[in-house]
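protien #1 (seq + structre)
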Amino acid sequence: MDERNLQKRLMLAIIVNIAVIALVVWTMLSDFKVLGWSMFAYYTELSNIFALVTCGLGAAYSVIAIMKRSYILPEFVKILKYVAACLLTIVFLVVLFVLTPYQMAAGESIFSLVKGTMLFTHIVVPILVVADFIFLAPAERLEFPVTFIPITVSVLYAVVIFLLYGLNVVAVPYFFLDIKSNPTYLTILYLIGMMALVYLVSFFLRKLDSHFGPCIH
């Protein structure tokens, strides 16, 4: 890929990253007013905050790449973008195929999870972050082992939530993590299903980046 094209992608990446930062800051402040500290129990909120940090680094290193005329991002920035994209894709898919049907079965509107700030945390920010990772972040190709980073992060989240919920420190954020109400076998099935979903998302996002992204080698 020629340098001019890479430079254009980096400039667009700066715009997208700044947009994500602005949206996440606004949504987190708004959600904190409603949920308080309990919002940090949600995978969605934590994933958006992680994306905020990642996009901050992405914007900064994109500016540096343009100034140095190197037009390539450090590998660790690309990896962070990858993890953020994976986590937010999980958010998007779980909202679409798990939480929305569950809410509808409980009598809620089909649009109950895309009202207010949730439109951005569940839909808009995930789309922007995934698009940035795949199309706008010129870097070395990611190797297969990085596929397991999002899985590790997700497992760590589940373990922490189980501990805090078991100790009555936080309320359970999602019905499939309710170890007090769900039978043990159902909790295990939920976890296996979620980990399989995380792996598939991680695998295919890396493949999409390899095929469509501005990878240098």
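ok now protien #2
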Amino acid sequence: MNLILAPFSFLYSQVMALRNLLYDRDVLPTFEVGIPIVSVGNLTLGGTGKTPLICELVAWALENKLHPGVVSRGYRGQVRGVELVTPNGDPSYFGDEPVMIASRFANVPVYVGADRVAAVKKMIEHQKVDIIFADDAFQHRRLGRKADIVVVDCTEAISNYRVVPVGRARENVRGLDRADFIILNKVNLATPEQKKIVLEFLEEHSTVKGTPIIEAEYYVRNLVNLKSAKRIEPSGFESALIVSGVGNPKGVEKLLVKNFDIKAHLTFRDHHDFSIGDINRALSEARRLGVKKILVTEKDAVKIVEKIRNDQREELNIFWRTELSLKLSLKVKKLHEKILALTH
């Protein structure tokens, strides 16, 4: 199969390389908007942990008296043009990740638009912001930025860094040349051998020589009941069922097995729009397994919470949202200093 797909992978890689060259030589224009932009992106398709990192950066910015904003493409949403995301808005309209961010930070403007330049301009026109985080914008080079953060999943197989459709990479690994910071994410979910392989893979490319590599660990901070909104800390080693529609379901499993006895994992495609039928299927599976908790990610929770709260069945209080946090290595100080310098 790879032999059949290899020519398409090579062609796509060359198209992306030419496009990047045209931007590097200012043949294709970039647009500066007067407010510093920090791009958070990746090389591979989905599931590396960009959105939790953006949430961590937004929380840090607020703690440091900054006024952050977020722009997003709103993948699989229905917005045409540019719109401000409302907290607890419709994820099928705005996209699940923008709604997740807006719901967590009610006073932080989140704008959705395929044209990120237009989205940023509208935000600046209507909001007071001094730093803007651009979600999934590493390849969206038309938007000028002051810093590029690339998230690398420590659990991702090196073979996935072959360009699509052979692998999962959006461009050649030489694209890391443009990175100002690399976040090596989920290091606590990888084996020591996996981590060693990924670090060697990064270090063997001259692209990342001197680029700070900031390690990040995932952990479950809280559980939030989707029916009652009750918040608790994970305790004991309870049996549970996972339901997820994310880019890297195995990564979700690796994280949650640290706190729970996972009996099964119902997986759906990334950005799946959960139906009542899906919820009933999860309930049936939980009853069959005898578990008292169904765990869902924050991204999935925004698409099912209203369905559950509007349903009168008490048994739906079995659904819990996992609130994740990142623990970043000390090198994150360099990233924080960079952002502060951009805003002063």
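Residues 2-218+327-342 form a domain with the Rossmann fold fold (CATH 3.40.50.300).
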